[in-house]
Specification:
Layout: E1 8-12, H1 17-28, E2 32-37, H2 40-50, E3 53-56, H3 62-76, E4 81-84, H4 99-127, E5 130-135, H5 148-168, E6 173-180, H6 204-215, E7 225-228
Parallel strand pairs: 1-2, 1-4, 2-3, 4-5, 5-6, 6-7
Helix pairs in contact: 1-6, 3-4, 4-5
């Protein structure tokens, strides 16, 4: 298994939910974590717990993303892992979605992944190693009512990661995609801890363990895609 000790990992959407769980778990495994989100208070608290670096940023802002990558490399000398976790969503009939909502969802879910990959792939190519983990959704592989905008963004993110996987594999770079089902987080204005979600939703820690699993796979093994569902969830 790959040892994560002293590996430098950038985690987006790190202040809550899945991103926070991933950051904490990677730090426990010895990684140096660069936590990225817009919420400065929660980021500072997380950086204290992970003994890592916290950088407030908008993942859809090119200058912000460039700064995160530059600062991580300046601080640690290199980056080994990128976890693209930041995501937003809303669920409405198509005609009830405003164009601004489309832009917001695609900016975070797709453009954010694109920008971080754009600025880190040259670094990974130069060092002939690196691992990108994209956390998408099971709706990247299916459609559902009221999911026109969110689902479209996840299909696009999945296509981006799948195409990138083929581009960078000859350079020794891995790209893994994780497709969680329902997760008990703050996503879409919900709050975690609802008793009704106990049997139907994954926990953020479940997704974090999946990230750990793909990152710790032996060097000669590539886990391209990993689907996660609670036993009770229909798919």
């Amino acid at each position: 298994m790959n040892d994560l000790t002293d590996k430098v990992a950038i985690v987006t959407g790190a202040s809550r939910g899945i991103g926070r769980a991933v950051s904490l778990l990677l730090a426990m495994q010895g990684a140096k974590v660069v936590s990225v989100a817009r919420s400065t208070d929660e980021l500072d608290e997380l950086a204290h717990k992970t003994n890592g670096l916290a950088i407030p940023a908008d993942v859809a802002d090119e200058a912000d993303v460039q700064n995160v990558v530059d600062e991580a490399i300046r601080h640690y000398g290199h980056v080994d892992i990128l976890v693209c976790n930041a995501g937003v969503g809303s669920f409405n009939l198509l005609e009830n979605n405003a164009a601004d909502e489309w832009n917001r969802i695609f900016d975070v879910n797709v453009k954010g992944t694109f920008l971080f990959c754009k600025f880190l792939v040259p670094h990974f190519k130069a060092q002939k190693s690196g691992h990108i983990v994209g956390i998408t959704s099971d709706v990247a592989r299916r459609t559902f009512e009221h999911g026109t905008v969110y689902g479209a963004s996840k299909f696009a993110q999945d296509a981006l990661l799948g195409s990138l996987r083929k581009e960078v594999r000859p350079h020794g770079i891995k790209v893994s995609t994780i497709y969680p089902g329902l997760v008990d987080t703050y996503f879409n204005e919900s709050k975690p801890g609802n008793p009704d979600s106990e049997k139907t939703h994954l926990k953020p820690a479940d997704v974090a363990q999946a990230v750990r699993y793909v990152l710790e796979a032996p060097a000669h093994v590539v886990v391209d895609e990993l689907m996660l569902h609670p036993l009770t969830q229909e798919w």
